[in-house]
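FAQ: What does the model actually see?

It sees only this:
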Amino acid sequence: MRIAFENEEYLKNLIETLQTGVLIIDAETHAILYANPMALSIIGATEVRVLGQVCHKFVCPAEKGKCPITDLNMTVDNAERVLLNVDGEKIPIIKSVKSTTIEGRRLLIETFVDISERKKMENVNAQLIRDLEIANNELNDFAYVVSHDLRAPLRAIGSLSQWLYTDYKDKFDPEGKVQLDLLIGRVNRMQNLIDGILEYSRVGKTKKEKETFDPNQILCEVIDSLSPPSNIRIIIDNPLPVIHYDKTRIRQVFSNLIGNAIKYMDKPEGVIHVGCLEEGSSWKFSVKDNGPGIDKKYQNLVFQMFQTLHARDDIESTGIGLPIVKKIIEMHGGMIWIESELGKGSTFYFTIPIQGTVPVGGSGGCNT
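And it is asked to produce this:
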């Protein structure tokens, strides 16, 4: 049985060019009255084999001749279902069903699209995510094991170096004393490097409960712990917003950014500004200094592991601090970047999403 479009030829042309399968079904008998070319293509059959058949022979195939949907007059919106083509292959589809009445006859308009490729991509992505998780776990375990294996001999070298320094330093000539100082410095650097690797591997591995806290208080604690020299002022430009995040990790971010600004300050009078603005659906924090600045061609390197812009014998650095900061910010759903001009200072910006309803500002204060 065919359904006639009569004077609605333009409607027929429209339906037959759709890249969506369309079936028109008798609501009482469940027989297929019309199938557009895309529906026939997905089913893999001609009109002769499809028209007049009950719809659940193909779409949502019935078991033992029974329709899987008790009430075929129900409305379905974008539901994942299965279509059985003429070769017996199950094809995943998204389908919708609408009920209508035309000239006193109750009909169901069923539309569906083949999502086989999407499901394949979902499976591929799921496998990639599983592989990535395995690789990350293996990398973290490797970093942890290697770092632990290095600690024992490093402690022995450190103890021996300190023993030489304490008991025999006066017996070394000037060159020997320089070399001994370098040895102790290298041991300390290696210890800091191991600690940094372990810290990087731990970020995101164990999730802590988020809490609501005042970053202004955190800044006071960070500044106090860093003990900036008297020639450096740290100014909080405006009260920072109360936020709901991992308090320890956010403290770590501020400690690293402000600590770097202090460490690399090359001006007789250093000034570090900390501020925050609401930007769209995120808080945009900034740590700005009037230090040496960073050449544009090196700005992308600062967030890479083990990258430092100064010789380690000039300024001690592991090159892990900013990668840890980047990992923390991205773990919190934000992003971090730098704007800098050589000789004129740097500004580190980072964003975190605004979550829940919190006061616009905290306590403020704590300028040094």
